[in-house]
Write a structure and sequence with these properties.
Helices cover about 25% and strands about 45% of the residues. With about 190 residues, the chain is α+β, with helices and mostly antiparallel strands. An eight-stranded antiparallel beta barrel has the order 1-2-3-4-5-6-7-9, surrounded by four helices. It is globular.
Length: about 190
Amino acid sequence: MNMNALKRGWMAALAAGVMAGGIARAAQGTGVTFKATASVKAPGKSASVPVTIRIDKFISEADRDKVVAAVKGGAAGEPQKTLAALPDIGYIEVVEKKTPLKYAYARSTGDGRLITVVTAKAIYYIGGAEKDAKPKEGYDLGLALLVLNGSDTGDGELAPAVKVKLDAAGAVVTDDYGREVVKLTKIAKTK
């Protein structure tokens, strides 16, 4: 999977319509934890760390509609403000740092599901030019996609610092702070 797949997944999760809504709601359930490995490779460097994604509940349709409207509204910073105002519904833990989830949405994908989770603040700024890379304006969300089979195992991607916007065609796209894709591998639901 690459960043284009990440963008399509975010777009699909936000734009899933009424037809998919009933299927997605039935597949969502509540109270689930996933473990995975996040890996990134850059010229001459690579790193892997454990990741835990805890979803206490999935976003309500009303709150999901608020997030979609904020992204479609196009105002700078509005998606982050809207997400920040929502209750915490879980967390992403990377290197012992927990970042609260504000958005968790699942949609059916045949025999599995695609889960999109979003934080209202960046998880990490990977790829900055200096040690302990600093924020860049607008890269204030974190995003993960979990592409799962019927056994709730699979792979995905993590975008630890992104901004979202609409492209010229009106589709939701993400712009990642880092140049390298952070892959999530060995995703597995814990008991």
